[in-house]
Amino acid sequence: MIKIDIVSGFLGSGKTTLIKKMLNDNKHEKVVVLENEFGQIGIDGELIKKDGLEVIELQNGCICCSIKLNFKNTIEEIVEKLNPDRIIIEPTGVGLLSEILIMLNDKKLKKYLKLNSIITVVDGVNYFDYIDNFGEFYEDQIKNAKTIIISKSQLIDHESLNSVINSLKNINENSYIIYEDWNSEEFYELIKNINQLAHFSDEDIKKIKIKDISESMKEISSIALMPIKTYSIKDIEKIFEILETESLGKIIRCKGFVNSGNSLLEFNYVNGNYDIKKSCLKICPKLCIIGTELKFEELKKTFI
């Protein structure tokens, strides 16, 4: 049986980073990562590919909404053509984890797939902001996880971290919560063996209740750009200062690669926080912006 691991979580929570960490000690298995991007172009897949992993991308939609059939067909194709030991699914940050679990409960898929770990990554810094503004699908990701991993815990104080943990327990009292600093030895020991995070049984499927989030999804949109300009780190920082004012819309996530002359700059903006660094990847510049009430033309002018 091929093991299936799902790494769910809201936009910018750290799903791709976690997958890379989890796979550092998993060199003995043939692993395929199924990457679902909400935007029209793939960014996170490039970050995983550079580590030599097989990445299949589903773009411009959410597994649980517009590309259900494509998702099942892709799983079957992966099994037939690649025959991996493990498939890691990274759904878009605005998807329903419950819907994905039910799709994987398909009789045909269950003949050769076994659900292993169901993980949701929660951004400790932005947790309460997100749960207030995106409650329905945000809570769905928490309710249906068996393991919840808090990211950026080192950036908040002990009292704030406890508040996040208590809130998570109120939503999903049976979950196993990992809150250690991701750079610590304790965290590494907890996640180095993916199979130790397996807490899922077929009985759990029967308890899943799906909500209609179509109205909530309408509020979130994305824009994909292929910028041709050359940027410095200061140029990108100035753009992020503009984004933070919300004059171009409420930007939840902005990520991608831009030209900086002899190399690329890789950047990741999440709800006002960001990091920018040089990238050794040899790819075309591209970026994706996700948010609400986006001013598309103004955003294009800002980056192109």
Automatic annotation (TrEMBL):
Domain CobW/HypB/UreG nucleotide-binding residue range list: 6-176
Cross-referenced CDD domains: CobW-like (cd03112)
InterPro entries: CobW-like_C, CobW/HypB/UreG_nucleotide-bd, P-loop_NTPase, Zinc-reg_GTPase_activator
GO cellular component, one term: cytoplasm
Pfam families in the record: cobW, CobW_C
CobW C-terminal domain segment(s): 236-303
Descriptive protein name: GTP-binding protein
